[in-house]
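Dear colleagues,

As part of the handover before I leave the project, I'm documenting each prediction I ran so the next person doesn't have to rerun anything. This entry is a single chain, and its sequence is reproduced below.
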Amino acid sequence: MTLKVNTAGFGGRKLSKGGIVFTNDPAHKQLNLSMQGQVKEFAAVKPDRVRMTGAAGDEIKSVVTIVPKPDYPFNVLEVKTLKENNIKVDMEEVNTEEEGKKYILTVQNLKDARARYFDAVILKTDSAVKPEMKISVYGNIFDKPVPSSGKAN
């Protein structure tokens, strides 16, 4: 019997999951299984998701820092978006003495009218442990407020 658990989103945290096994043994028709453990973090991603909120026509940007953990060194080979017309991404690799290698990802809104969207930044890595990372992007672009004329009706 194999029990698989999706640990995505649990890096650096404790994970608890349970399951039920049904048997043909009349004395033990079902068994309750539980497993728990600490999930190692592959990389420090801050923030771990991006919210693009602002007025249409304004520059709306967000910066994400990605630092590989020492147990799981990797290089980013490719950066792309899930969809083509919501966001634009740029990535820069930086080496620092205190953190070592890190990546600075800049996400910019492309919508110039009122819109709500879900997108993601997909990072292809050279790691066999995690060949692909996904950073969720939520957009809420609202109409720019019309300035009042100051005249009473």
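The mean pLDDT is 90. The CA atoms of residues 20 and 32 lie 5 Å apart.

All the best with the project,
I.
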